[in-house]
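Example 3.2
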Amino acid sequence: MKKAILLLLMFAILIPSQVLAAKAMSTSEIEKIYFEDYKDRVKEIKIAQKKLNTVLGAEVRELTQRLSQASARYKNEVKNKSSKAVIAQAKADCDKLKKQLGVAKVELNKTVKNYKKESEQALKDIANQKAELIKFIKNHTAGKDKLTESQFSKQVNGGIMSIDGSFTSILKMLTEAE
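Structure, written as tokens:
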């Protein structure tokens, strides 16, 4: 009888302590271990988004330069009191370049907006993948699945590689934009 009570007492003490020892990892612990460079990669994407105007704006820069030259020529013609025909031609050139520049700026803004929208959607998809992977890791560490450590590692590594591949493809899309 004493042995039975001692045995029950040991189960009452040991089982709860083992359950506490196998507690699930917190989200911050999982992020530190598995997603240490996630925030840096997101910053890379944001920086690439900001550089889109520079990357895609060659035509706008060229037209701006040509417009400033044409404006200088027009002002010079007016200052030198050139003939009305020469002044009118210089003014027409400026107006034509202004219209071209306006169209080019609108096209640039549309293109940049589309790239940003596409990359933001991809970042949301990555965030969802990350959240699912964190949930999966929490479930595993809490003992809610029947996976072996090998199977768990394969799935986690596959998820991390998928997220990394998504980051790489977004960055490539933004840096090679035309």
